[in-house]
Amino acid sequence: METTFPELTVLFQRIRETYDPLGVFLYGSHARGDADPDSDWEIKVILGDDAPEALFSPELGWEVQEGSGVYAEVSCARISKFKNDLSIENSIAREISKEGIVLELD
Description:
nucleotidyltransferase activity; 106 residues; 4 strands; NT_sf; Polymerase nucleotidyl transferase domain-containing protein
């Protein structure tokens, strides 16, 4: 991941430390290759079904990315919900399955 997206190195380390994720995906304009200088990085963090509710806070996602060197939208999903949403048109999970990039999986 660091060689493909070196600008995400600090953010990715923070994601690992904060969430202990099952998987991390990049999606949106950076994954499609059509990002412009004002585009944010869209990151989906996949957590176990038993992950504490506090990890799903949008404020925590903001804190994790703040000061990382990139502006990113960091959001989380439980693995079972993510898998269920793969079959739903226009869901984020479906978008990720079509154009997302796996940054890390256990």
